[in-house]
Amino acid sequence: MFGVSAANSPVMMMLFRDVFGSCVVLLLLLSSTGSLPPPRTSFCLNSAARRLVHFSLPDVHNTTTLLLSDDESTLYVGARNAILSLDVGQSEAMRLKKKVQWSPSEVEIQDCQYKGKNPTVDCPNFVQVLQQLNSTHLYACGSYAYNPHDAYIDAESFSMVHRDGAKGRCPFNPFERNTAVTIDGELFTATTVDFRGGKPQISRYFSKDSRPDVSLDSSLNLLQEPKFVGSSLDPADKKLYFFFSEVGKEFNFVDELRIARVAQVCKDDIGGQRTLQRKWTSFAKAPLLCQSPKQLPFNILQDMFTLQPPEGSSTSETLFYGVFTSQWSTGPESAVCVFKLQDIKTVFTGSYRTFDMNNHQWSPLTETHSYLGKCGLDNSSDFELTEVKKSFLTSSSVKPVDDGPIVVSSEQQYKRVAVMRTQAADGKQYTVLFLLTESGFLHKVGLFNRGPRVIEEIQVFTQPQPVQSIVLSASKGVVYVGTSEGVTAVPVASCSIYPSCTQCVLARDPLCGWSRTRKLCTGLDGGHENMVQSLEDGNVEEECRGETKAGGDTEIPVSLNKVVRLQCEKPSTLATLTWTSDRFTSLPEDLFIRSADGSLSFLATSSTLGTYRCEAEEGGYKETVKSYNVRQIAPPRSRTPKPKNDEQSVHESKDEPFEEIPTLQTVTTVMQPSGDKEDFDTTDKEDTFTTTLKHETDFSKENPRIETDDSLTSRTDTRSSPDLSNDTPKEKSYYGELVGVSILLAICILIMMLGLLQIGRQRKPGLKLDRLFSPDDDSKTNKSMEICSLSSPEDGAPELKV
Ligand SMILES: *[C@@H]1O[C@H](CO)[C@@H](O)[C@H](O)[C@H]1NC(C)=O
Ligand SMILES: *[C@@H]1O[C@H](CO)[C@@H](O)[C@H](O)[C@H]1NC(C)=O
Ligand SMILES: *[C@@H]1O[C@H](CO)[C@@H](O)[C@H](O)[C@H]1NC(C)=O
Question: Which stretches does UniProt call biased (Low complexity) (predicted)?
């Protein structure tokens, strides 16, 4: 990637790709003015720098359910018509241990088809529940041709014990969300229980000690079209919490208003004696509020992750991280809110509303009933239980920690979340979120005092997945993502991608630090001694003192009259690049073309030979990324005569106009004024544009003999070979390329202008929605993938998509 290419036609194609690619990137950067800053670095699927481990088998698809064994050495995978166990003992590999086929028969598929379902899309058996039942067995439930079936699986031999129908334990519809949790061999589920998916139910199955299975009372609609996303146990209170969103009937003045909720039931509830027999006496629900000040709430819950409290803390310190979207969004937009178990408990012990069956209205309960929301009402009076039956909605909402979202993205539709806590080098605890976008990117977000940052973005699949699954093994440091093709293991950090102390510290990744002893960026598991980090401010100046290596110049031998293109890659999307050289003072600025991708192009003449340095600035810190010494190669004395004679003449003539240029002064200046860094992208663009045009006209005037040489020797990708093409004796003219680049830059500017115009148009005062692309064209999704596919897959060098 850091290679230099001289002028020949592949360069042109390369420039096209680079210029165009960068254009798109710039547009995206400009458009992202939401609260969450853009990812600092970004890796496409199968990037060499950020290695992922994939597991796939030709006949394994739709890995919709993932379950990590308690010792985190086995990953159980629920797929289409199969359940697998993978050995994930070594984090570098995933090895198939066992697989069991679990498909409906031909007749059952036909049945499904007769009921109006698509035999290949809807009628296979999609595994929707996979739980560790006890020390020896797993429990599984699958949609099974729209006729849910369940089974016990011996975790070792992987032999399966089929059971009869399993209505009520997982949905008929494979695309429907549900949740389940097993505790001491008992199964708690939240799902719909009918073919059409209209009857929601929360139940306990396999109840122990001969107590009855319990479900929701059906005399009232306790739930309204709920979409369940998660469940969690509070072992201290023996209560279970279910998370979902549903239609909020308490606001009957708004049609179809959805509300995020948490519902509770007591694990040992056995139902009442006469009233509420075999029905929960402990069911209650409360609204979950996720709202920025003066904004419409994020009211649709997409996923919920339970972060256990640190060792030794009370379970009341358990945190729930919810991904929310909004019913009123016109484009991709989402937020993360955190709820504390203590706050949920407080709301459930507070006051309740009661449902009036005559006028179908909710009203606040005037007197407090201490038994509402409590466990152990089994022997309560009928009077009390009748009150319980109709007073199951709390008066207050559960408010998030910090009273609002901790992350808001006006760019991304986050769908899944996993969270880990980590101890940084300074001994402080930091929280890292892994957010999976709808379009297949995993965003690693660090939470800091000054707000969240997207440390990196990793593409994990290319085809949008209708059903997504993600599991985090904090002890192994791996995020497992289920896709339609298999399972992908994403290491939570890959510190070696940061080559210098500067980059390591600027990354501000709580999981990475610069080791002063080993002189490399590495994970913190080897101890926190002598590790450099500056998570809150990225203070490179202080932290990396004495750690910066003085990199030598890269020698660029060139023949005169070739276009030299010096590449410089941004170390991160947040960096701005500046080229410096003493040539810039002595020569007209328009001899140098700075491309949007950061590269510098110019014609090699006796006066442009010299040193060029590319500097990156990020967070107020400047670092030399690349330093080149462009020098002339010894002029070849005897050369094999080439078939094209005119090339020779072009070559000779090209020297002439530059020979009058006065000798160079050795004054170092920065071409880009060091203030106003923010405006780098736009202003630079315009500069380049004008200078390029001038350059072009100069050439056409002074060099009428220059012709475009389109005799190609090969069209192979020059980017993949870092060697210098100008070492080859074959000479090429540059005019065509320059015109091409100019046109491209012109196009680029045009796109930019249009983009800016668009932004201007969309920027409405007081509205957070600040998107570049029109909301209903889904172009954001496509665009981000386009960038990733723009980078050529054969690139051997670490591919850092910026
Ligand atoms: C299964 O995967 C295919 C793509 O391979 C996708 O089209 C389909 O919607 C998936 N089905 C479910 C239930 O996830
Ligand atoms: C686990 O549950 C299965 C299914 O109910 C049962 O056959 C097995 O004996 C149980 N194992 C233990 C150790 O309780
Ligand atoms: C309810 O009453 C039964 C006997 O009538 C008793 O065995 C049981 O312990 C009581 N339950 C509670 C929670 O008090």
Answer: 711-725
